[in-house]
Amino acid sequence: MVRQSLRNAKPATTTTTTTTTTTAKTAVTAVKVDKTVSAKVAVNGRVKTEKVETKKTTVSKRKAASTDAAAADHGDPDHVCAVKDEDDDDVDEKVKKPAAKKRKTKGDDNMPLAARTAVTSLKRAMFIGAHVSGAGGVQNSIQNAANIGANSFAVFLKSQRKWQSPPLAADTKKEFHALLKQHGYDAAQHILPHGSYLVNLAQADQAKADQAYDNFLDDLKRCEALGIQLYNFHPGSTGGAPMDAAVSRIAAQLNRSHKATKSVITVIENMCGSGNVVGSRFEELRDIISLVDDKSRVGVCIDTCHAFAAGYDLSSPKAFAETMAHFDDIVGIEYLKAFHLNDSKAPFGSHRDLHANIGTGFLGLRAFHNIMNHAPFENLPMVLETPIDEKGPDGKSVENRQIWADEIKLLESLIGMDADTPEFAAKEAELQARGAAERDKIQDQVDKKAEKDAKKGSKAKPKAKAAPKKRTKKEETDDDDDDEDSD
């Protein structure tokens, strides 16, 4: 049984081509000359051939290494997040990404794609949105959210690919607050910033732990400057250490950050259960919370894809009710502060974090109907992290934010809908057909891995020890007896 309504809960390797005359050195642009090639260069209207050095910068390597390190830290090589940070304004200007690799947006970035639904017009007060871009400044996330008809949203408060970022500018804060007022968003209730994937609060190495904490605390201070009360983060990885030790380290870092700030609620995201990741079991979330001194400053965000992949079913009314009752028994429904709404490309209990569009994955549309019609979830921010990348006519990746706009309307349409109607069945079948090929592909991968693991397991069985050879009487001497005594 749900113990109380949440409304009454306590706040509880890019390559850059430069000429041989480039000699500038910075802390992040150490370079190595790979080769020299001939290139035609326009000089004063004439074309002349010059030798040009192709250099590899360590910046792109560092970014890749940072991302790889984060994946290793979190122990989640399958993690596929639909949202990518675009705020690279403070990257060394000498290091440019190839234009061909830049991600584009379908249509005008500032074009409204859907009108926001008045929450008061819905049968339940469900605040649905998506993780939008804050490129060019976090204040831009507000217009980006409004453009897709979002009533809640998530955003990275700074680049999530770097350990350090410039401080929040006074003009940014001023514009953020002005746009909040203009669009009518409640920053304290319905904005859910996402922490950097680099941060692992379970880190045992002291230097790395301090680095993670500094990044984490910086985000909390940004939240307070912007009037944001909820802050979502991945708990981290054990790094191979015992789970209880990792849990203790996470709680200690939360306690430390709470003392250094005043109001932000640190919201722990549940994980899918791959590798050494902390937080895939409700018991691990409970154990972290139990060690937090100020219980009003901690909560949980349930990611539906992560929950399903970790073995918590939401796909049928019965399974959903059992999972939520289990969550309430173990963690406590009063700690539930937010949702990430994602279908799953991977099957139940696969421990693979592969987000799918709503209704197209193994969770299916009924899972989201269950969520949209559960009264205790009213007033919580519900954030889409579903894929929106498409291939453009030129083969390049294009972001189609219309997908989010349409999914928000789809989810809103489920509120109060009878799931036993032909209308629901038709929509459910349409979405399942759309995702069938991807589900079959991932299911095949999962099946092959299970078969491979089973074969490895059978080969790993210890062989029976051979019986010791019997000594002949001729071999039994006093010397042998002496050797045995001395062993």
Write the layout of secondary structure elements.
Elements: E1 15-19, E2 31-43, E3 46-57, H1 58-74, E4 104-105, E5 127-131, H2 140-147, E6 152-154, H3 170-183, H4 187-190, H5 206-226, E7 230-233, H6 243-260, E8 265-269, H7 282-290, E9 298-303, H8 304-310, H9 317-330, E10 336-341, E11 343-344, E12 355-356, H10 365-372, E13 381-384, E14 389-391, E15 397-399, H11 402-414, H12 422-434, H13 436-459, H14 478-486
Parallel strand pairs: 4-15, 5-6, 5-13, 7-8, 8-9, 9-10, 10-13
Antiparallel strand pairs: 1-3, 2-3, 11-12, 14-15
Helix pairs in contact: 2-3, 6-7
Helix content: 25-40%
Mean of pLDDT? 81
Q: CATH class, please?
A: Alpha Beta
| Second CATH tier, the architecture | Alpha-Beta Barrel
- What is the number of beta strands? 15
| Euclidean distance between termini CA atoms | 65 Å
Unreliable sequence segments: 1-77, 85-102, 469-487
What is the CATH T-level topology?
TIM Barrel
The shape, in one word, is globular
CATH superfamily membership = Divalent-metal-dependent TIM barrel enzymes
Give the DSSP E fraction (strand runs of 2 or more residues).
Answer: 15-25%
Order of strands across the biggest sheet? 6-5-13-10-9-8-7
Helical stretch tally: 14
- What structural class do helix, strand and pairing data support? alpha/beta
Biased composition (Basic residues): 457-472
Biased composition (Basic and acidic residues): 71-84, 427-456
GO molecular function: DNA binding; DNA-(apurinic or apyrimidinic site) endonuclease activity; isomerase activity; phosphoric diester hydrolase activity; zinc ion binding
Family: Belongs to the AP endonuclease 2 family.
